[in-house]
Amino acid sequence: MGKTFIEKMLAKKSGKESVKVGEIVTVKPDHLLTHDNTSAIISKIEPELKKYGVVDPGFPVIVLDHVIPAASEKHASGHQKIRKFVKEHDIKNFFDVGEGICHQIVYEKGLALPGMLVVGSDSHTCSYGAAGAMSTGIDRTEAASLLLIGEMWLKVAPSIRVTVKGKLQPGVSAKDVILYLIGNIGADGATYCSVEFHGEIENFSMDERFTIANMGIEMGAKIAVFPVDIITREFLTSIGINSDRYEEVWADEDAEYMEELTIDLDKITPVIAKPHTVDNVVGISEVEGLSMDQGLIGTCTNGRVSDFREAAEILKGKQVAENFRLLLLPASRSIYRELVQKGWMDILVESGGVVLPPGCGPCLGAHQGVLAPGEKCLSTANRNFKGRMGCKDAEIYLGSAQTVAASALYGKITDPRKEIQ
């Protein structure tokens, strides 16, 4: 019997010839990601850090992104503590305020490569499966332990095979695909499972794969992963990563799966996740015309160049509706610069959009886009939980960048296919 991706990866990382589903193995991850929560993590182990230090200064990846620039003295003090820690322990991979959202930074800096195991104290660490890495979120206590000893245990998860076929129609995006999948299997439909994407994946760009892998946790998945192909290799080459720096790992054709699903991309249409759960998914026709107060394009889910380009193509030469706020949040500084250089950001700002620094602020309700009671926001983020954007009496709807752009023109949910030229 063949092996799944996670079975191969955990055998490799644990030094075993093979592993089986349900087995617990000890592994040494290649990197540990933390962000603003680094302050709380190191506070748990201050005496141990003083005595033993960090296991390897090249092991942690620390990105300040959640509340940037600091919104209060408390946040500023947390950032200060992290910078001091980085300096004292000579941390090699530190990215200060303004570099970008942690998941985008790990991805574009080549810190999560095919065949690597990367863990992070953020649930959307599963994003790096887009590049053929095994990546998953862990809690802060485990992150603290990893800083000191560099190893942990993981249970070999059962696997779900998702086969995609066909090609997306104009006005339909990868965000619609992953929302459709989550809506079908439920927010707990893949709990502690490895979700593998097979089939005609050449029809997904790297940006689209990242969007899909990023939201794996929203169906409970431990990891969500794509195979390495020519698109992956070309992306890695574009960021200066040669093939001798990574090892491609993928499932055998005769691997055994807990469940197998098929998605026909030709039949996918724009969808919306209604409040207050990500699996509360409906076709856009069911909510079309519903008034919105705010739109958000960006975050670690849909904050890449292609997302803003698609939005700009819809908004070019037009104006955002009166009394509607359109927030623009590029996932990194490099993305922002490319948007400026290519003129896409100018189109969006000219239409009435408001540019935010590359960070997480409005997505988690920290600042720069917090909602008021009774307000509704259409967002490209990954979660729409009650209170997620800072107010428990507000409502968050999730959709694609194209859907948010089209809706911004009218101040109400609008099918983007109506605005595609």
Structure in words:
This protein is α/β, with parallel strands linked by helices. The chain is built from 14 helices and 18 strands. Helix 11 (about 305-315) runs parallel beside helix 14 (about 400-410).
Key features?
five-stranded parallel β-sheet, alpha/beta, 14 helices, 421 residues, Aconitase, domain 3, 2 domains
Contiguous runs where pLDDT drops below 50 for at least 5 residues: none
CATH topology group of the largest domain: Aconitase, domain 3
Instruction: Give the termini separation.
Output: 50 Å
Radius of gyration: 21 Å
Average the pLDDT over all residues and give the rounded result.
96
Helix content: 25-40%
Question: How many structural domains can be distinguished in the coordinates?
Answer: 2
Largest sheet: 5 strands, parallel
For the record, the CATH architecture of the largest domain stands as: 2-Layer Sandwich
Residues in β-strands, percent: 15-25%
Order of strands, main sheet, comes to 4-3-2-5-6
Q: Please report the total strand number as a whole number.
A: 18
Structural class: alpha/beta
Task: Work out the helix count.
Answer: 14
**CATH H-level name of the largest domain... which superfamily?**
Aconitase, domain 3
**The CATH top-level class label of the largest domain:** Alpha Beta
Overall geometry comes to globular
The quaternary organization reads as single chain
